Amino acid sequence: MxxxxxxxxVHHRQRIVRRDExxxxxxxxxxxxxxxxxxxxxxxxxxxxxxxxDSIFFATYLNLYAADISFHQRAVHQTDVLGIHFATPRMIAxxxxxxxxxxxxxxxxVR
Length: 111
Prior knowledge:
Blueprint: H1 2-13, H2 21-42, H3 47-53, H4 55-80, H5 89-110
Helix pairs in contact: 1-2, 1-4, 2-4, 3-4, 4-5
């Protein structure tokens, strides 16, 4: 989990120039799959009960969703601010949806 978070951080901080735009999106999709796989692993346990019993699980859960938010915000930033054209409107809409979903998940679990 820590390794995944560090890789996402490096990906988030990456400067993009036109020639390596495709490389950015390739790594973006790879990290998206890794985050989804980690969510699948963590969601095998009953979340609400486990959070009460295991503070490490709670921290990991929150960090995973926070990484998801940061990760997808970067994709939106790449297209909105920097004018990167490789991403389709559908890809950006999906990233925005994932940001909102992850934020709602964090809010619901913290309540």
